[in-house]
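Q: Is it fine to ask for two folds in a single conversation?
A: Yes, each is treated on its own. Send the first.
Q: Here.
A: Result:
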Amino acid sequence: MKHVKTILLVALITVFSAFTLVGKGYKVGDIADDFKLKNIDGKMVSLADYTDAKGFIIVFTCNTCPYSVANEDRLNALDAKYKEKGYPVIAINPNNPDVQPGDSFKLMKVRAKEKGFTFPYLFDEGQKVYPKYGATRTPHVYILNKEQEGLRVKYIGAIDDSSRNEAGVKTKYVEDAVDALLSGKELKTTNTRAIGCSIKV
């Protein structure tokens, strides 16, 4: 009987936790706070450093998730296409390296060099930033647009509609969103489902 009560208690805590997580993090239309995180070169980076940026492509990603690995070349391509137009890629590793050793700061530097990352790859030490955004997967994208009120969230979700196979991409959600912002048009799609690995806490 005691064992059954323990199982029921654990189940109730799990359900309660799931409900308390609902609604956490930014929604499209919210104003996002700035942050300051350590880049792989050891320097601290904040969005305020990018005085000429019109906005940002924020991507929560990591070394070890196969979905993240499958999107690394796409991130380099996005940065190459949009950085000079005012929307640089900013990658953040949200994983706890004590739980996922392959996502240590040391190995982040190795991976970035191997893949020739052209964008900052920041370490969310203490896992303080990703909960503010409400990121749950790697990769998970947030497009921010600089406005008078601050950095407004314009899109949340996946990079495109083919998470593992770039050759199968039919709809490029992030490109479509940034192109719309650059043209001063309304975004046709503002939310998609981020497909990837759960963030390791």
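Q: Second one now.
A: Result:
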Amino acid sequence: MIEKETKIINIISNYNRESQNISRLLIDKLRKKNFIVPKEYDDRAELNICIGGDGAFLRAVHKYQFPNIPFIGINTGHLGFFQEILPEDIDQFIANYIDGNYVMEEIFLVKADIYTKKDYFQLFGVNEIAIKGIKSKVVHLEVFIDQNHLENFCGDGIIVATPAGSTAYSFSSGGSIVYPSLNILQITPISPISSEAYRSLPNSAIVPGNSIITIKPEYRYENSILIIVDGIEYRYDNITKINFTVPKKSIYKLNFDKNMYWNNLKSKFL
């Protein structure tokens, strides 16, 4: 994965003043260690360092189209689940990286295959892909797992989350926390309604990563749903069905502390 002979490291920063200051400091330190830091994103790089919050990380992954180059994040934001390195620990991070004191983590994605009456579209998400109604309308959806009918859903929407995204929108909507290395998808309802006409699950459901989750809008609602990928809205007309799967494509992140996930979980939420 990492070809150390390239010695090229991309630094991707948001426009926050602190992030920009950290970026300049990091560039100087890396160049003194004989790394090449290009002015523009270089596909030949051995590492992407993202400076900012989790939003900056997600934007970088989407902007550069889910590259094979691994990521590491320096946190100048708030939550920082993806951005694990603190600015004051930069020197230690560089030393550990040079010495190879890290492990490579695979981050599973979620893919949505969107079928309309005339077209086909494909979207990838790091955290989640959600289906909601336009203008905050209630949506009516049929949900299938491997072609087995699960429920007739009525409510604000449904989130299909990755393990990495289990601590994001899904968690805020009552979903479970899932360890990142597990190959699964989680279906989390948003404000579900149960009535005589609709039987909506009140809690999230976790399905194996080799399953296909199919969501079909009722015919009256095929033009009234939004697809939200990691916070970015998409809208398509005449949607007939959406298939959600774990794709072969994934991204990679460096982990310098095997206990970082549990420490993060406790410090951010407890």
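Q: Anything structural to flag on that second result?
A: Two points. The longest strand covers residues 148-161. Residues 17-32 form the longest helix (16 residues).
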